[in-house]
Amino acid sequence: MSPYVSRLRSRPHGQFPGQARLRLPGAPRRPRRVAMLSVHTSPLHQPGTGDAGGMNVYIVELARKLASINIEVEIFTRATTGTLPPAVELAPGVLVRHVDAGPYEGLAKEELPAQLCAFTHGVMQAWAGQRPGHYDLVHSHYWLSGHVGWLAAERWGAPLVHAMHTMAKVKNAALAAGDTPEPAARVIGETQIVRAADRLIANTAEESDELVRHYEAEPDKVAVVHPGVNLDRFRPTGGAVAESRAAARARLGLPQDAVIPLFAGRIQPLKAPDILLRAVAALVNEDPSLRSRLVVPVVGGPSGSGLARPEGLQKLAARLGIADLVQFRPPVGQEQLADWYRAASVLVMPSYSESFGLVAIEAQACGTPVVAAAVGGLPVAVRDGVSGFLVAGHDPADYARALGRFVADPALPARMGTDAAHHAQSFGWDTAAAATAEVYTAAMQERRRHLRSPHG
Hints:
The strands form 3 sheets. Strands 5-6-4-3-7-8-9-10 form an 8-stranded mixed sheet, with helices on both faces. The chain has helices at 54-68, 116-128, 142-156, 168-172, 184-196, 205-215, 241-252, 273-286, 312-320, 334-343, 358-365, 378-381, 396-408, 412-424, 429-452, and strands at 4-5, 22-23, 33-38, 72-78, 87-91, 94-99, 137-141, 160-163, 199-202, 222-224, 261-264, 296-299, 326-329, 346-349, 370-373, 388-391. It is an alpha/beta fold.
């Protein structure tokens, strides 16, 4: 039974009617309000553009679900245009605060460390206008936010919960050819945050092990919480998976009988969309008749080191002789992205590193199987042989063989897609938010024990 019962309390924005809590003596207390930090990418940005990707989706969906279980969230992010209001209500109980830190436009992620002091100042200004104890806990995302969170948590006397999302040492150990390694400053910064945080949230058990192995995290400080997927948005529509796929193809103007391997995400070496193109070229070279049956959508925009050669993938498609098969599409909203997932025969994720791979879960929830690299969290996201196929390594020939199975068996996308949709049902955001709330509660309990300790 929950230790909380209704009691009126003040709320400066979007008060939930009748919502409030009374803590029974000695009962663990959840935070009432969390300061969530996302320095380098705004939850209001379109995923697939610039540095916006899975982390944006993660923050938005987690914040919404936390608010639905009576934990208010204020998300601090860097203002990227001068026309943004200081605060925007994203959903009831979720406020996005825009902080002026550096020029609005033209600032690369690599230049942001120099703006962390300005960002921290903006966060402190927002806090100064509130009553003492306004924020019960700080939850930072990515290492840049972690440094701001570290200072804010110390100033406020609140616990710090940090989510890495990606780690420099892990990325540098699996770089794509020609990709730029993460700088030493990031490695040092991540090491400091691991030591400072009261709790660390890892997406998978493997990520937890990496935190311990690479950054000497204390194992009892690391909690594994799988990210979720919005199962109301990402789902088959109109009956069975085959009917859902046909309807989505009709809406997108795609041929009904085509084999459609989809890439969706940021176009950069880390995500390895070139491997999909090379695999398709291998299939066509082996069987030229496939040229009339293959459509290869690439949905997303250049990001990170991919910005150095924004047209590199188009030029590769031309060199491989498959430019007529590849459809380059700009990033799209979540509703249209769901239609691209539904329309595809298979989603292809040949990434060199993925902390989890939300895109894989989204596609499976829509009834689309996944062919993915067996890296990071993808072996958790994809059930090999059931909801898709995992590929060891990054040899295009191996991906061509996996895609060849969908070419050879026209019924495989629907059959495996049905299992994929069932597999994705265990990754709802309700579960992720409840588990995150437990991490918050544990961090707050430990902080109180530390304050009561004579040696604290």
